[in-house]
């Protein structure tokens, strides 16, 4: 039984903490079952750290209050570069230090704080933060979270140890949870933080067990009969050695400049992280210096949370209108009282489609939560019904296109409404032209959105080819168009005629065909004539082209109208090379195909973006966190906890020189 417990705990750790299982689930299940059977035969030998004992307790009537060993502090916030500089200055002044300090830089996880007591390495108690001094005993619930070790591994664990961290719900789990809630007709959670906090404080541990919660440890409280290293980043590494999950993005940075760099990198990465963050945390790395700085009120003087711009805000809906897209799809859009959210002022937010509009029942006059995350278009999340004014009515679907008045069709089995006007609808024409001229399509510099509106509204342009027939005198009749800008625009148009097949295909705006598909099609067929005459079966051979997309493509090229558009463009001089490109030759020129890289620390000879571009040009992939699937970890100066993780997982570690020489061939040039 002891052996099974140890083996299962090891698999739990590999699966939930390292993200690197070594046995298939079925093998785990068999071992687990074996232990369950032994335990039912010898109940006296069941130990509390047995993996079968994660969900043990019956629902509780309430939570007991428990005192923390050391208080659980909160953090002071910084909202600007200036706030951060002031924080660093105050720290330096108190320490009488001159020169850059080292900081542990960590994501600020958006979940619920937790205090974990380990006695002789065994998890004996878990408590919420409460008022910072006394929290609620949620041990039974926390035990069900698989990334929380019931027993610490490795050596040197102090007899008594309070571990501080955040319980959170990864986004993917949150999405699935809400999807299931919606299917079951239950109320979804507003965000992963509420879902995590709610699940953690549920009275029935069996319910908590069914929720996809996870832990990242970020600090310690009481440490008795044992010691920890003198720097915070090393403490995190030690916690990680003992089997506690630590955010892989944690890094060591130097001075305000290092902090600002980290903030910028994390802000950029924010949208693609697997979990929600509401900022980053900087902590003076030297634990002795932390002690010298001490705390004031309930926050340490040695740490600060530099918050990201809030991604959600409240505002009111002025109206709901329908926007007509490139393919005629009508999208309901809420016009809003302008609000600053996610780092920008938002005055329109999408409602996606009719079903969403009706499900959320957004009405003019409503107070709503708008969300703008990263580069994602702002959306209306939900309505605050308690704030709905009297006498509102639900928004009805239009029967005619708001732009061209053609009848609107609801496609069977689709949530989409479509304007039937086709290229007779100015809205569709405008969108098609915007797409045609956009940076990743023909890339016509200076042909902006408003100019396209004017060109369509004045009937100067009907189809893409018309753009290339424009004259300076025609352009000069438009608003804010002098001779100089007209000439410049014509030059840009002329330049854009030299393009590639993949850009040209993308620019045509064939339904469902995005950039990646255009690229795949161009590589596969090389010549446009081959593409235009290909059968659905031939399309099926192209990577990622399914039968539906193949249908769209063949239908597009069969339509005489589209053939004319293409003929016209070619006759006007739009051209590209129809020779296979060298990188199509196979793996010879893409030697890094199938390899994934993670970059950490500061590289001396190139920026991370440059390194990423070079790796990708050679067929490799760059990802942000180290897993068992990572081929190489490239370490620059001051790597963070990723290095420890790579070493633990046996991922090959390269320094910058090795990356340059052996892989990118920098030294051979
Ligand atoms: S340290 C000594 N580190 O933020 C300071 N807190 O606003 C104590 N949080 O209650 C906190 N990520 O729940 C620290 N990397 C991180 C954190 C973090 C999230 C939360 C924590 C705390 C709150 C304070």
Structure description:
Strands 14, 15, 16, 17, 18, 19 and 20 form a seven-stranded antiparallel β-sheet that branches. A five-stranded mixed β-sheet has the order 2-13-10-3-9. Strands 5-4-7-8 form a four-stranded antiparallel β-sheet. The protein folds into six domains: about 1-50, Helix Hairpins, CATH 1.10.287; about 75-305, DNA ligase/mRNA capping enzyme (D-amino Acid Aminotransferase, Chain A, domain 1); about 310-390 and about 395-420, OB fold (Dihydrolipoamide Acetyltransferase, E2P); about 425-495, DNA polymerase, domain 1 (Orthogonal Bundle); about 500-580, 5' to 3' exonuclease, C-terminal subdomain (DNA polymerase, domain 1, Orthogonal Bundle), CATH 1.10.150.20; about 595-665, BRCT domain (Rossmann fold, 3-Layer(aba) Sandwich). The protein is globular. The chain is an alpha+beta fold and about 675 residues long. It is built from 25 helices and 24 strands. The model has no long low-confidence stretch (mean pLDDT about 90). The longest helix has 17 residues, at about 25-40. About 35% of the residues lie in helices and about 20% in strands. The structure holds 2-(butylsulfanyl)adenosine (IVH). 2-(butylsulfanyl)adenosine binds near residues 73, 108 and 281. 2-(butylsulfanyl)adenosine binds near residues 74, 108, 129 and 300.
Properties at a glance:
globular, 669 residues, alpha+beta, D-amino Acid Aminotransferase, Chain A, domain 1, OB fold (Dihydrolipoamide Acetyltransferase, E2P), Helix Hairpins, 6 domains, single chain, binds 2-(butylsulfanyl)adenosine, five-stranded mixed sheet, seven-stranded antiparallel sheet
